[in-house]
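Q: Structure tokens for this one, please.
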Amino acid sequence: MDFNIIRIARTVLHVKDLERSKKFYVDALGMIETETKDGSLYLRGLEEHIHHSLVLKQSDKVGVQALGYKVEKEADLDKLEAFFKSKGLKTKWLEKGTQHAIGRALHVHDVSGMPLEFFCEMEKAERLLQRYDLYKGARIQRIDHVNCAVPDVEKAYDFFIKELGFACSEYTATEDDRIWAAWLHRKPTVHDQAFMNGEGPRLHHFAYWLPDPLALIHCCDVLASLGYADSIERGPGRHGLSNAFFLYLRDPDGHRIELYNGDYLTSDPDFEPVRWELNDPRRQTFWGAKAPDSWFNETSPFLDIETGEEIKAEPAKLAQKKPEFII
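A: Here is the predicted structure, written as tokens:
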């Protein structure tokens, strides 16, 4: 391919009550509010030097508008449009000025039906990495990855690896060696984009990097003290797959956010993907705790790039939807 996708850079979510969401993400989790404008809340982490990595848009319906990827050059956008059109996939341009603080953006549906966004330009913001006086809640640093449920993981895997230039760090396979889940990356960490077998396409979670494992513990204390204890869905714990510390939360609209720290470098071109058996008890939680049923069964709907309507989910291709263990 002759385009260069850099990393996952933002998510755009629809929420029903913007003020309620602000209390959760800003007051409890400690995200930085860049600004609120025209019914949308723009948030970023302390380390981030661009305007935002999370957009929360006031809406009557909860959903996921886009998973945004940053590309190296403006020309990459035109090359991506040509590529997606050559595959017969839906594309839509949003010219500069259409979306706040962001340049020209290409919106597409991939082979799984997920609404992806590609952009090069975004307004800058003050990087607050050493403003320790602003470290609150979970001390969120930067966006790290997204994880999506799709009905055919192998189809999604092949498209992202062979067509978009992603690499695989780890994957989960069934006894007959079918790919049940995969962790793919452009930046040199474990993942930007993960896929898991399930009804979809749907967003399972989006994730933010924290400065250290203690930030996870501190976040739990803050959430409990502010009355958000029920928002803690899973963790804290350590994943076997990725080796990272994790905490899964549900926001006031049910969107799932993972707070994450401690994975590893994947930059070497000869790095070989790590294979995990589907029911290996170390994968889900290295310490052995199982995930609740909600973690497997509840996801956020994607929205069509043209109509804004919820994209119809298809059943999973592989029969085993809930293994004994999963990350």
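A few notes: The chain has a mean pLDDT of 95. Residues 5-119 form a domain with the 2,3-Dihydroxybiphenyl 1,2-Dioxygenase; domain 1 fold (CATH 3.10.180.10).
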